[in-house]
Specification:
- Pfam families: TPR_21.
- Keywords: Cell membrane, Chaperone, Membrane, Transmembrane, Transmembrane helix.
- This protein is an all-alpha fold and 206 residues long.
- It has two domains: 124 residues, Serine Threonine Protein Phosphatase 5, Tetratricopeptide repeat (Alpha Horseshoe); 54 residues.
- It contains eleven helices and no strands.
- The longest helix has 22 residues.
């Protein structure tokens, strides 16, 4: 399954995301939150310099095409040249395209680079959640669990619990997965996300 299958979903479609099932749903939520974080920054930093950087980011982002290496190189240069929020957002976009090309190592490296530029805790959380998903796909559950430890804030509890449960289950720790998902069910998450986590718990052996 593609890690970022819902990248192009509009932010307002988040209201309908929880009608879906499986990991792609959680990924879609993470991506949607990432878009909201980016939009908040665009609105809060509209001085002259920020407008220029914002315009440059939008141009680079809209031109990205996984089948066109030149657009990937342009985005990578933008991310490298801008050690700020826009650089981090470019890293998010670029990592998705690397996933499209099945270049998981490059995607992970780009997200780690973005983390060095991100100052906002929510943006950092989005980067770390995406990184943990990739690390799981790379069959590195222990690394993914370590990445999840960096995510703070009650608003992320259920999504972190979902990924943590998947990581523990991949290690054969059924009880650990059950406890992780149970924490997500007990959190202040949407009812449908809780139902999804409960369904995963119900499907566990024993």
């Amino acid at each position: 399954m593609e890690v970022y299958s819902n990248e192009n979903e509009q932010v307002d479609a988040l209201k309908n995301f929880f009608a879906q099932n499986g990991k792609a749903l959680v990924v879609g939520v993470v991506l949607g939150v990432g878009a909201l974080v980016g939009w908040r920054y665009w609105n809060n930093h509209q001085d002259g310099a920020s407008r220029e950087v914002s315009a440059a980011y939008q141009q680079v982002s809209s031109a990205l095409d996984a089948s066109k290496p030149a657009t990937l190189e342009a985005a990578a240069k933008f991310a490298s040249d801008n050690n700020n929020t826009y650089g981090a957002l470019a890293s998010l976009d670029l990592a998705k395209r690397y996933i499209d090309n099945n270049q998981l190592d490059k995607a992970a490296a780009q997200l780690q680079s973005g983390l060095q530029d991100a100052k906002d805790a929510n943006l950092q959380a989005v980067l770390n959640l995406r990184l943990a998903r990739i690390q799981l796909q790379q069959k590195q559950p222990d690394v993914a669990l370590k990445t999840l430890e960096s995510i703070k804030g009650e608003g992320w509890t259920a999504i972190v619990a979902d990924i943590r449960g998947e990581a523990l289950l991949s290690k054969g720790d059924t009880q650990g997965a059950r406890e992780a998902w149970s924490k997500g069910v007990a959190s202040d998450a949407s009812s449908t996300l809780k139902e999804m986590l409960q369904m995963k718990m119900n499907n566990l052996p024993g």
